[in-house]
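debug: dumping io for the single-chain case to check the tokenizer round-trip. Nothing else runs in this session.
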Amino acid sequence: MKKITAAVSAAMLCISLSAQKLPGQLSVGGYGEVALSRNFYSDSPYRYAKPAQYAGDPSHGRADIPHAVIYLAYDFGKGWTMQTEIEFEHTGTGTAYEREFEEAAEWESEIEKGGEVELEQFWIQKSFRPQLNVRMGHIIVPVGGLNNAHEPLNFFTVYRPEGEFTILPSTWHDTGVSIWGKAGAWRYEAMVVAGLNGMMFNTDRFIHNGAGSPFEFKVANSPGFAGRIDNNSFKGLRLSVSGYAGNTLHNGNPNDLRGINHSTGEAKQYSSVEGTLLFGAFDFAYKGERLIVRGNADYGHLNDCVTISKIKANRAGNGSPYSRRAVGEGAYALGIEAGYDIMPWLRPGDREQELYLFVRGDRYNPYLPAEGQTLATYTEKTVVSAGINWIPVPGIAVKCEYTHRFLPSGYNNEPAVNIGIAYQAFFRR
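debug: decoded output
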């Protein structure tokens, strides 16, 4: 309910700005997706623990609205602007439950999972010149290609590209301060944000859940530092590098892992353990007259993963928001997609519609264990997708694809058919 109240309050703020007839300009926009899937593999939580037993299970279908987003922005004039993004995920709000893919298949509730309403962006910005802008509030952390361009018309697949979506928060948003600017063919952004919580990391998703908070506030004991540089020197081509660095262990509440043990007067056992995360990514996008190619390469490294996993195992349970699952020392994601517009062959002279035939490949692993950690061989996956994107009018995309997830030897591969429709537009600027 408090998330809904925050979202409604932000919307009312923008409406009241318009009602006061301030001299600036109100912008309204958004994006949304509807997805239908038929998965031709077992949905049992034991399918990785006992793959042979579940090889012949029936297929299952799913219907979802992954994201429905409303943008509200206002230009006050004299370089002052604000923007808010209110996101509805999976049609509703609340805590979602799932069964983990492990021997115990225990039920657990997930933070930043399932239906919810949240304020994904809320910032105020002062622009001094194109080369220097300062933004403060709740902002997107543009690490990786997906977080930089997460709207549905920026990728061909029905669902967000699987590799980056799995190992990174998506969409990654946090509270902090950002400085950004443009100069010629270059754009830069540097930011300080509240930081990730290492206790939210796990085997299947690496740092994906780390930006969320199970509390009514975001713990910010250890800030994170992120940056991105884009270059557009070549016509139609963007080349980008981005990264993140920060300590992650002591961003939980209560912060009782460091400090002085009041019984002994000595430093607590984990006071010097930081859980430093270093994450780097390269991504690119090329758009020609009829050809679009996009790709990414991401790698993350987490220090003290063995210690963090041990602490998580000891503190999970009894209503704790933390999973018992271990987190590995590293994770990677590689992805590339290409689409070609064949509409000029079918309807010569039609310059509004587009029909892309596309293929995409992803290879990723959210769990690269440190020495001595238990292996989880099912986590390394290769995903190949092929299908069409029909754009009947600008801002609308109808998507259809066949996708096949290849798992290591001994596990069952996971084919699926997905169809979807998405929009992305500004309704008033």
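debug: round-trip ok. The CA atoms of residues 60 and 384 lie 20 Å apart.
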